[in-house]
Amino acid sequence: MKTLVIISHPDLDESSSQQFLLAAIPKNENITVHHLEINYPDGNIDVFREQELLLAHDRIIFQFPFYWYSSPALLKHWQDVVLTEGFAYGQQGSMLAGKEFCLVLAIGVKESEYQAGGRELYSISELTKPYQALAFKTEMIYLKPLLIFQFAYLTHEQKIQLYMDYQQALTREKDDSLQAREKWLLSQLENMDKQNLADAEHATLSNAIAQIKSNRSTIEELRLILEQMR
Amino acid sequence: MKTLVIISHPDLDESSSQQFLLAAIPKNENITVHHLEINYPDGNIDVFREQELLLAHDRIIFQFPFYWYSSPALLKHWQDVVLTEGFAYGQQGSMLAGKEFCLVLAIGVKESEYQAGGRELYSISELTKPYQALAFKTEMIYLKPLLIFQFAYLTHEQKIQLYMDYQQALTREKDDSLQAREKWLLSQLENMDKQNLADAEHATLSNAIAQIKSNRSTIEELRLILEQMR
């Protein structure tokens, strides 16, 4: 699976959340990071190049700070000029059909304000309807978004979780089963660069992998017994 | 009441719907028309000037073609740079509080597609939640939007109705009572430029005004009788 991360942010260098996410992106030929403001400082978008990029990937990520309940202006401009009739929708062709679409949003206000009675009035699911409608019209599969509320206030543990969640948003095949998450975790552990690990750490890692595999065997055995009992 | 019409459209001259609306705007010192793309072709928005404009008006109109369920990019950029914390919201000040906010949207797809089962999936009320949340956060009063579906296919009669509806969106005080609509209509009739009218037309107009006033008297009398009967 190839993933295209389209980032729109007017000042990427100054954003601690965006820098954190950038550092979390696995160096991987299957992931393309594409920052619009760097590529098009004058706003003149190369429509053909952008459409080629979309065609070459299976999962499209829109990653941006949630300003006034939407994206920065350049991503909106990109939508208007790149997602044309005959390419993205309409009778002549829906070239994005079947691809996956996922929002990664950095949100400055805490989650509990996004509801009736809160300062932001509506939920993120309500406020992102324009993106859901976009995915529907272009026949893309709308994935659960990755919502990052108030990055600056995250604890160390929450940041580690975010690191994992973000990598999964970029690379994990769409499947929420326990087994799929386990498989993804195993492949991450097994592909880790282990050169810099001390022997003890290396052993811990091997034990963790063995433990997960052993748990899986137990689960499979239990499932078999259950099926025989039916 | 002073009304600020903020128009965002990348090519106003080529838009028949926008030209129709421009022609319908009453020449009136209480209405300011402000086209963003003409004022800021390079996108460098004069924030102070824009905030002054907002402060000087009571009703703020956002008028634009509904591209990908939102505005053209320049209006989004305007929102992000003009509606700052301490000006539009936050503890330091909500300078827009109590003003009225109204969307005037030109929409290329027919109304019936904007629902579950339709090609656009969601209603306009659902898709405009970001603007409703904006009005809520800035403490502005969200008025019923003026939605123009498929302008090119409107009949002559529908265009006349749109002409009236648009003038009302710009100038009529917020009050949906029959009496308020009647009052607005009377003031429009009485303020018409009658120099170019033939005598017969002049008489028709005078009769119409007299008729409306007479109807109003009858209604008031009936109301009085009803109250006495209680």
TrEMBL record, chains A, B:
InterPro entries: Flavodoxin_fold, Flavoprotein-like_sf, KefG/KefF
Domain Flavodoxin-like fold as annotated: residue spans: 1-161
Gene3D superfamilies linked to this entry: 3.40.50.360
Keywords (A to Z) from UniProt: Oxidoreductase
Coiled coil: none
PANTHER family cross-referenced by the UniProt entry: GLUTATHIONE-REGULATED POTASSIUM-EFFLUX SYSTEM ANCILLARY PROTEIN KEFG
Protein name, entry field: NAD(P)H-dependent oxidoreductase
UniProt lineage: Bacteria, Bacillati, Bacillota, Bacilli, Bacillales
